Amino acid sequence: MVWKHSGLVAEVHSESAGRVALLHLDAPQPVILTGPAEAVWQLIDGRRDEAEVIAELQAQFQDTAGQLAVQVEAFLANLEAQRLIETADEAGK
Fold it and tell me: Which DSSP letter does residue 47 get?
């Protein structure tokens, strides 16, 4: 599946700390992403599918436990539940 950032999300990047603050315009509080979570956010671009995102992350981070794919899929589901991302197909509707 190909994901993109929701059009109703405001984001602020910290240049030096590698983190991003996200706020869905209907949410009461922002979500702060750091480390690998911030890296996932940067890879969500409406063009890469989940497999490509996971491959890029495997190149950046060691996956000694072999859990990266499962963790990324769960994280993407969480972002979708918070309405921070949507499928690229839904974005055109």
Answer: S
